[in-house]
Amino acid sequence: MMRFSAAIFVSTLAVVLAGCGPSPANIELRKERQQLLARVQELETLRQGDLARIKALEQQQDIPALVPQKKLERLYTAHGLSFGKLTGGYREPADSPHDTGVVVHVVPTDQEGQALKAAGRFRVTVFDLGMPDEPLVAERKFSIEQAHEAWYGRAMLYNYVLKVPFHVMPQHPRLRIRVEFIDELTGRTLISEKDVTVKL
80-197: what fold? Predict the structure, then answer.
């Protein structure tokens, strides 16, 4: 009788223990959880890599941004360049029979296309595309201080006025002006071009 009772007890215990084991649903949930945790870790590793790349690119800029990117997105900052109607040839001295350079009226514009007085450096290059071998006829760089002196914000004008004399006399009246602006605040380089006609 004692042996029979012990056998029943062992059998019952085995059934109970078997019933307490993990169900197939629990096993599946654990597998899904492990997969999700692995995916989260993978995404975090990718995010850290992206942040490191962004930081490296920011350090490579000529002028580091003075404001964090998240704040920049909420500010009105330079996104483009707009040429004024008076951009074209100029003469010095005034009684010269032909233009001696170009004067560029240009202003940075914000993300909505509105004129924006932004501090920065300029590089202006002028090309006579009819001279394929050596098309560059003028070039001038403007520091932040020089650009500040070239700002004109009176009457109907609201732009930088950049004078660039020819170092090679062009052979054709139609020229292409290329303006590069490096924004002091964001470190962005903005580029725009305009074709003009000068008097030769």
Answer: Immunoglobulin-like (2.60.40)
